[in-house]
Specification:
311 residues; alpha/beta; Rossmann fold; six-stranded mixed β-sheet; three-stranded mixed β-sheet; 19% strand; globular; binds guanosine-5'-diphosphate
Amino acid sequence: MALVGRPNVGKSTLLNAALGHPLAIVSPMPQTTRDAILGVVHHGPAEIALLDTPGLHRPRTELGRVMNQAAREAARSADVIVFVTEAPDPARLRGGAAKDGEHSRPLAPHPGDLTLLADLGSEAPVVLVLNKVDRTRDKSQLLPLLEALSKVREFAAVVPISARRDDGVQRVLDEVAKLCPEGEWGFAPDELTDRPTRFFAGEYVREQILRATKEEVPHASAVQIERYVEPTGGGALHIDATIHVERPGQKKILIGAGAEQLKRIGTEARLRIEELVGRQVNLKLWVRVTPAWRESLERLEELGYNKGEAS
Ligand SMILES: Nc1nc2c(ncn2[C@@H]2O[C@H](COP(=O)(O)OP(=O)(O)O)[C@@H](O)[C@H]2O)c(=O)[nH]1
Ligand SMILES: [Mg+2]
């Protein structure tokens, strides 16, 4: 099944809650997820393969177009689509209710949601997930939004949840399990994903960059794993990675005074990778300026972002 929705509605948080493991990286910044990531959940007798996708958005760069394409392809090939949207920000809700003491205005769906829903096609059943309901104290305020969305298309189920609090996530899996065809996959019970740990090593470095820096630096950064050596018979895993940025100023920010920033990023990322692989990790980071890598199909390919044909 594929998780689709606008950027930042909480798709990756939902994947992690379903897995019970913080596999996918999550941040308050839109476009955190750049590749589709598969997570495997054993739910009762069912095995559910959840595909987390980059948020569909209006792309401004070649990277953005590649990300949209990854999400669309995931949606096309899925047996079940989980369409994720979010409860409105409380500030917006208050604004709506305050109008001359009227009843609170029925909340309209986000225009981006309407476009996405129209785009989804009608082959696969769609489960509507309204995430972040923890932000709304009076849940009845959400009903007009759910009603309006239900008029846009038919949903196999509608599930309000809080992915962050792991509230309602099991219900999403129940609904998906009912809709899933039987016996298609075949992962080992302890397998979390089909991606190699090498991929997540790069993701966890990027996660620390997202945490440590602001504005254009996270969007302009890409992590390339240059060396990944797993000594047989134990011992530390050796990883060399290059962080590509687009401008010298971004490189300076990432490294920081006395290289303190880069050291912190390396230490935090190493701890996350060690948790995933269950062994010691030796992580070395370099920062390189690769101008306009987000606009170059060739660079994107080298960085692993361009698997299919770009359109
Ligand atoms: N209040 C609240 N915030 C959430 C919830 N789920 C996710 N978030 C936050 O929303 C932001 C985007 O989440 P993420 O999973 O990266 O969204 P994605 O872009 O759809 O994958 C992060 O700051 C999350 O912590 C939720 O249930 N409640
Ligand atoms: Mg995400």
